[in-house]
Write a structure and sequence with these properties.
This protein has 10 helices and 21 strands. With 454 residues, the protein is α/β, with parallel strands linked by helices. The structure holds thymidine-5'-diphosphate and magnesium ion.
Length: 454
């Protein structure tokens, strides 16, 4: 391709897949109608950005590299620290994605507040004015002097300011509003989002600054989603939750410095986000007593067991094809479990509508909740209540067998802590339990057994 030539390419706004022609379905992520045209200027070859640390052309021996014990910095939120793998790693690039209005700006402004007393923090907003940020800050509380605000969308000016100010933490809110003059396409387009993130990566690694990037998730594909830049950053966190409910879940989906799948639970209050330490208690809040189709299951989210209420409603279908929905879990999984129930437990569900819901709007996909879904469906179908003080967990196989899951003891302990009196779990997990005092353990080998005991 000729140097400096302007070309038109098509990008998938969901995953960033690049193609020379428009396509209906993205071969990268399988989404439909996500391709948009963008004109990009191919950079002249040889003008690469060079090394991350800004050094000469030199390779290093592993033994020569000094281990700098930079340590992790606590964010002031234990829930966030856990998701980050134990605090902020200096010089890392962290992406915080989520739906608009979920609370990303609020969370990061609160992190700024926690850190401003001990270090220099620069909050760069491309979305809100200084007055708007001040208004939000007033809801959150008192701020120390170490927080600097800057409203800007030009990448070049942001870079200049960061190089001059040399803060330890930078927040970019949001990446979709930032543009680089070197690229002709609009802010929020795939090429802009990529270019500006690459520049931020340079700054983070070269100057040892931790940068938090906010990225909005958009369904319509008007702006490029955070998935486009997941591969460039060190850590990817998603902030999720039902906008109408007050709690929010911060989920780690990628972490170069810690384990993924950890979650942090927050509650949105009048004065900002509040950490929720006892997530299980919070999730079970409002569980109906003595209702059929409601069962408590246990899911491991990273290292933490969380109890959730699974609700199912099974009723006779008035149409030829029964209706099935699943909120908070995978519909295919629900369909599969219903087929297993029909074939292996003799429940004739094929002409019934079924609605499954994980109460509270959380998403849980761990196989260990299978048994909970099965018991909730059976309970609703038979209109037989499962005892309120019973929890269950276990993976269900196609033969109707209840299979082993990991960390059984942690789950039992969590149930005990919350005052449950019976735990239905896979039979094979029972010998591995070390502390079962005060709770009745019911080991089951098949869903038939589980339903009889429920
Ligand atoms: P926001 O952080 O602006 O969302 P995002 O940056 O992800 O788009 O969150 C906005 C919502 O949070 C808004 O609906 C108001 C609510 N909110 C509170 O309930 N309490 C508060 O103290 C604050 C600051 C916001
Ligand atoms: Mg915001």
């Amino acid at each position: 391709m000729a140097r400096g030539k302007k070309t038109t390419v098509y990008f998938c706004q969901s995953c960033g897949y690049e193609s020379s022609k428009w396509m209906g379905q993205c071969p990268g992520c399988g989404e439909w109608s996500t391709f948009v045209e963008e004109s990009i200027e191919k950079k002249a070859v040889g003008k690469g950005r060079g090394s991350l640390a800004g050094e000469d052309l030199k390779a290093h021996k592993l033994s020569e590299i000094e281990m700098l014990d930079k340590g992790r910095m606590p964010t002031g939120f234990a829930e966030l620290d856990r998701v980050l793998g134990g605090g902020i790693v200096p010089g890392s690039l962290v992406l915080v994605g989520g739906d608009p209005g979920i609370g990303k700006s609020t969370l990061l402004l609160q992190v700024c507040r926690n850190l401003a007393g001990s270090m220099e923090v620069l909050y760069i907003s491309g979305e809100e004015s200084l007055q708007q940020i001040k208004m939000r800050a007033q809801r959150i509380g008192q701020f120390a002097e170490g927080l600097w605000l800057f409203c800007e969308t030009g990448m070049e000016r942001i870079e200049q300011l960061v190089r001059r100010q040399k803060p330890q933490i930078v927040i970019i809110d949001s990446i979709q509003t930032i543009y680089s003059e070197e690229i002709s396409s609009a802010p929020g387009s795939v090429s802009q989002v990529r270019e500006t993130t690459a520049r931020l990566l340079q700054i983070a690694k070269g100057m040892d600054i931790t940068i938090f990037i906010v990225g909005h998730v958009t369904k319509e594909g008007v702006v490029a989603g955070p998935r486009v830049l997941e591969h460039m950053v060190d850590t990817v966190l998603y902030f999720e939750g039902d906008r109408h409910a007050s709690y929010r879940i911060l989920r780690g989906v990628k972490n170069r410095f810690g384990s993924t799948n950890e979650i942090g639970v927050f509650e949105m209050r009048e004065a900002g986000l509040q950490e929720v330490e006892n997530a299980s208690e919070f999730m079970l809040n409002g569980k109906p007593k003595g209702a059929s189709g409601s069962v408590v299951a246990c899911s491991m989210e990273g290292t933490r067991p969380i109890l959730v209420e699974i609700q199912a409603l099974v009723c006779h279908s008035n149409f030829g094809i029964p209706r099935r929905t699943a909120a908070g879990t995978d519909l295919n999984r629900v369909n599969l479990l219903m087929a297993v129930l029909e074939k292996r437990a003799g429940l004739s569900l094929s002409s019934s509508d079924a609605y499954v819901n994980i109460a509270g709007g959380v998403r849980m996909n761990e196989p260990a909740i299978d048994l909970g879904i099965v018991m909730a469906l059976a309970s609703s179908f038979r209109n037989k209540v499962v005892d309120d003080k019973t929890i269950c967990f276990g993976e269900v196989g196609l033969s109707g067998e209840v299979r082993a899951v990991n960390m059984a003891q942690q789950r039992v302990s969590e149930a005990k802590k919350l005052g449950f009196s019976t735990c239905i779990l896979p039979k094979v997990c029972v010998p591995g339990l070390t502390d079962t005092q005060g709770i009745r353990i019911v080991g089951v080998g098949s869903i038939r057994e589980a339903i009889q005991n429920g």
